[in-house]
Amino acid sequence: MALEMDKLGRLPGDDAFRRTDLKGTNWEPTYAGALSFMRRKYTRELAGVDIAVTGVPFDQAVSHRPGTRLGPEGIRRASAENAWGPFWPWNFDPFETLAVVDYGDCFFDWGKKEDFPTTLENHAAGILASGAEMITLGGDHYISYPLLRAHAKKHGPLALVHFDAHRDVEIDSGGRIDHGTMFGYAVREGLIDPRKSVQIGIRTTFVGETTMGFRIIYADEVHDSTADQLAKVIKEKVGPSKAYLTFDIDCLDPSAAPGTGTPIPGGMTYHQAASVIRRLKDVNFVGMDMVEVSPPFDHSELTSSAAASLIMEYLCLRAWQRGARAEAMPE
């Protein structure tokens, strides 16, 4: 691709800081320049913004391998590979439809872990108050709990569409900052409605665990089903409710996503997961997070790349819901 001057007579590069328009994509080398998610503008000005991408570099709730504090950085770096134009198989650029910015990270005092939930909830509430939606880059999966608190305050109880190897509803005495317990808390607090929620790709279980009303699609059912069949189950369960998508990258098989804290064999391929997301066009999503990407355990950015691309699938879905369509390929 030839380097062409922009309308101001500048060569492309560093769009994370130099871009003036919130929409559209300007090509720049994937291996150079200032990094943001998909080269979107780094800003905390949210006027006219449809979706704000923010990072939460927190991994103090993990039960096994650490490193997800580096997840936001890894996902941003891997996203540069796709920051050049239409995204396959949607064959359109979602940024022509959606004004998306990179809001930067949520900052917190790592020495005061007990303050983290409130800090993140307030960070999210500030973004949502502007009218923008959120895509959040984790971080371990505990971050979904404060995020759900902020989203539920705005939207009411949510349907949860949860891709994971683990259900994260382990029984405890309460109050733990733990990435394996928080969805039980979210149910008890009324943040999510389990009667309208689905957990996909599950392949672990714990003593005393109950369904809590979730529709659980275990990994064997995933592998025995088509993407159409899985999407139908999700859409029938969620219905017209406002929904939140949380994607733990360990839902993917370790062969597709080795860079995670608790890898469990037998998971989904990227194609399986992406194919289901592409079929959720009727779901009324209001937010998304991508969690548990741990670059220190990754290989050749496989996991970070999968995470960035799955977020792009979601962005294309949201753009499609707002009217974006692929143009017919010329003969």
Secondary-structure topology with pairs:
Layout: H1 15-18, E1 51-56, H2 71-79, E2 100-105, H3 116-129, E3 133-138, H4 144-155, E4 159-163, H5 182-188, E5 198-202, E6 215-218, H6 219-223, H7 227-238, E7 242-248, H8 270-278, E8 284-291, H9 302-321
Parallel strand pairs: 1-2, 1-3, 3-8, 4-5, 4-7, 5-6, 7-8
Can you tell me about this structure?
The chain is α/β, with parallel strands linked by helices and 331 residues long. 28% of the residues lie in helices and 14% in strands. It has nine helices and eight strands. It has helices at residues 15-18, 71-79, 116-129, 144-155, 182-188, 219-223, 227-238, 270-278, 302-321; strands spanning 51-56, 100-105, 133-138, 159-163, 198-202, 215-218, 242-248, 284-291. An eight-stranded parallel sheet has the order 2-1-3-8-7-4-5-6, with helices on both faces. Helix 2 links the parallel strand 1 and strand 2 (100-105). The chain is globular and about 65 Å long. The two termini are 22 Å apart.
Question: What keyword list fits this structure?
Answer:
331 residues, alpha/beta, eight-stranded parallel β-sheet
Quick summary:
The protein has helices spanning 15-18, 71-79, 116-129, 144-155, 182-188, 219-223, 227-238, 270-278, 302-321, and strands at 51-56, 100-105, 133-138, 159-163, 198-202, 215-218, 242-248, 284-291. The protein is an alpha/beta fold and 331 residues long.
